[in-house]
């Protein structure tokens, strides 16, 4: 049941987490060339020996329009709308994509729609050159926005180092690949093999999108969450099983105790006696012998029941058992054999000593204040076992000795050997 709830919770948390990480736990950076951290610039090939001319206008809604007159005569003519980060280089590794609302128009070659080149220009002190704009490493993507649904989402992993730049800027191997941790400028530029004529780049909105937590890290976290939850469940489950086991053992021990004890007198019943004897002989072995057995039977008990009622009879039996128990050493066993008959087992006690103990107990009974002012006596039969094998015979002998005590007039102790 718990596992089912845990699984349901994990599934909900996982789905919610994935959705939240994708849609809610995102960071975005708007690239609009405004504010103290960004500067908008227009660059054209006139600075590099060309004759193209670019002009920028910005509408009240923030849309930037770059009008570019590409002139022939220069090998790589271009116009460029550049947003420079003047508040410090941008670490784009914290972002995953560039989202664009953009359009381009211009003369088409062989029906190929006008293209837009986007450059992410990175700085690194080890890049060759004087450190000017042309020495920033360009990472580029080129595509034709016409016919695409806006916004267009470009994954930053799609940006590759421009090969023409790499040829003029030989780099050590570790610096050859894309490096987006120190991006200084983003450029929106006319296409590669641009035709002469009037070109227009319209940039409505550009924003960088990233997750607070990288998706891979987030997924790894979710896997960890599953693992720890399952581990936690297993630990809890094994603890719960052990607790259940402990409870049931306690309960069965209590039941066992009840099964081995006479409920009226609170001393052992026959089954309890045989278990206790088993334990005793196992613990003491030969040292427990000689062992004496004493049978005790209340005298004229029927009369007590008949004259004073069954309840008084019960009280007498309970008091008799308690008196026997209270006046015997702890190691000696007391059990109710049945009816008004009890058995005492005395380890390490020869018959003579057991007779003496029985006599002492008989005297105690004579002094005991019994219910309803009764004078309760008992007949006692004593026998001795020299070893474990002789125990059964000793039981029989003690029982017979007790009957002899009855016949001899009751309220006396008789030893089987006498
Ligand atoms: N109140 C009560 N009486 C019991 C219980 N168990 C046995 N008895 C009664 O004990 C009586 C035993 O009677 P008998 O076997 O004739 O023995 P007795 O009257 O003690 O006579 P002797 O043993 O010959 O001295 C019977 O009346 C049983 O009903 C019990 O748990 N409670």
TrEMBL record:
Signal peptide: none
Transmembrane helix is among the record's keywords: yes
Domain GGDEF span(s) in chain numbering: 289-418
UniProt-listed SUPFAM superfamilies: Galactose-binding domain-like, Nucleotide cyclase
A Pfam entry, by short name: GGDEF
Keywords: Membrane, Transmembrane, Transmembrane helix
SMART domains assigned: GGDEF (SM00267)
Reactions mediated catalytically: 2 GTP = 3',3'-c-di-GMP + 2 diphosphate
PANTHER family: DIGUANYLATE CYCLASE DGCM-RELATED, REGULATORY COMPONENTS OF SENSORY TRANSDUCTION SYSTEM
The protein, known as: diguanylate cyclase
UniProt organism field: Pelomonas lactea
